[in-house]
Predict the structure.
Amino acid sequence: MVDPESVVARLARLAELLLALDRVRDAGIDAYLADADLRAATERRLQLTIQACVDVGAHLVSELNLEPAADYGGVFHSLARAGIVDAELSVRLASAAGQRRLLVHDYLAIDDRRVF
């Protein structure tokens, strides 16, 4: 059973993270590339943003008894097949889940321009 408070908390945190990422984007790529601390903070915020989306999506998949996902990207495909999210959005979110994997596990291969 989905804990509504947990979902609401994740969505609230998601909103905060997105605002912080917007500020980085608004400052421009030159500022981003010039500041190692900003890049590290942005990578962490991006990781948390994607994780919040995965968590909320997984709650929905479970609560609605949708087809279980084999991986994080699959959560969004399951939601798309059920008509919960647009198919194009599910592809973008699944791609983001792949980016999360890079940030967490393959951090030596991070492309700063792609993150930006």
The chain has a mean pLDDT of 95. The chain has one domain: 4-115. Residues 24 and 32 are 7 Å apart (CA to CA). The chain has six helices and no strands.
